[in-house]
From TrEMBL:
Domain of life: Bacteria
A biological process from GO: methylation
Protein name: SAM-dependent methyltransferase
GO molecular function annotation: methyltransferase activity
Residue ranges the record marks as coiled coil: none
Length: 298
């Protein structure tokens, strides 16, 4: 059983914490990314993704959602910026022997280290599905970033076709919200009455719970018409405390906290926050609910 840890903020070391980017990407791909599989499946079922689907995945990371789409017969293009280690894993997953090539049409997938505009191809029809599966509503400014990303991607989508957005569900339905507050507390932005989420859609200061219509507002700001939503249970389950800490750190949600204090302090605080979810067999289990919105190009 993990001992109770005393909270003691260490002096700020300054700058972004040094991390092993390759190890962090592997932890994401091997531990954390699979937690969102029920979300991916629910969205693909809702939009009937399959043969004939031309999917553009924004923030595709290490490519698990794209891989699941290809299993349904979809042709996929993934775009991510500033995540070369994750994209390298996505290439290995999706392109196999062609992994050294950034775009291999014969392999049925394209992976692009860049922005949505880089995924344009005049020789091909417009995309008929865009996904943004990185859950919004957890870090300051993420709704603004998602809006900007969508605004640049929507011109590549055919009229009337869907865009799928994902976000955290209500804090009372997300056990992980208590753990995410570690990041808020260590960066000095925590309020005990406000579990997590930006104060308002355009703000970058303070924290508040995710509201029901946040994703709809993002869609509308990007020129899309909301056309339905759903909730999906996505429990976070880990083999042990160490795996839980590694998985959560791989999300990048605690990087600001590590910069404000230090990596060791963040890991200790995470272990303490995870203790209530430690089961007798040593595994960690946190029930969560995520929300998705389907919007269409006008």
């Amino acid at each position: 059983m993990t001992p109770t840890l005393v909270r003691q903020h260490r002096p700020h070391q300054g700058g972004t914490p040094r991390v092993d980017a390759s190890a962090r990407a592997r932890d994401w791909a091997e531990i954390q990314e699979r937690m969102l599989v029920p979300l991916y499946e629910a969205v693909y079922e809702r939009v009937e993704a399959g043969a004939g689907t031309r999917l553009l995945g924004l923030g595709c990371g290490s490519g698990l959602a794209l891989l699941m789409a290809t299993a349904r017969g979809a042709a996929v293009t993934g775009v991510d910026a500033g995540a070369p280690e994750r994209l390298a894993l996505a290439r290995a997953r999706l392109l196999g022997d062609n992994a050294r090539t950034s775009a291999a049409p014969d392999a049925g997938a394209r992976l692009i280290d860049g922005v949505p505009a880089d995924a344009a191809d005049p020789a091909l029809p417009p995309y008929n599905l865009i996904t943004a599966f990185q859950p919004a509503g957890c870090t300051a400014g993420d709704y603004e970033q998602l809006t900007a990303l969508l605004e640049s991607a929507v011109p590549l989508l055919g009229r009337g076709h869907p865009v799928a957005l994902a976000g955290w569900g209500p804090p009372e339905r997300c056990a992980t919200s208590a753990v995410l507050r570690v990041a808020a507390r260590l960066t000095g932005s925590d309020d005990p009455e406000l579990p997590f989420g930006p104060r308002d859609l355009g703000g970058t200061d303070g924290w508040r719970p995710a509201r029901r219509d946040d994703l709809e507002q993002v869609a509308e700001r990007a020129g899309l018409k909301p056309d339905g939503s759903g909730r999906v249970a996505c429990p976070f389950g880990y083999a042990d405390i160490n795996s839980a800490v590694r998985g959560l750190l791989s999300s990048g949600l605690f990087d600001a906290a590590a910069g404000a204090t230090d990596q060791t302090q963040v890991e200790k605080e995470l272990e303490e926050a995870l203790h209530p979810y430690l089961r007798p067999d040593g595994t960690v289990w946190m029930p969560n609910v995520f929300r998705y919105v389907i919007a269409r190009k006008r």
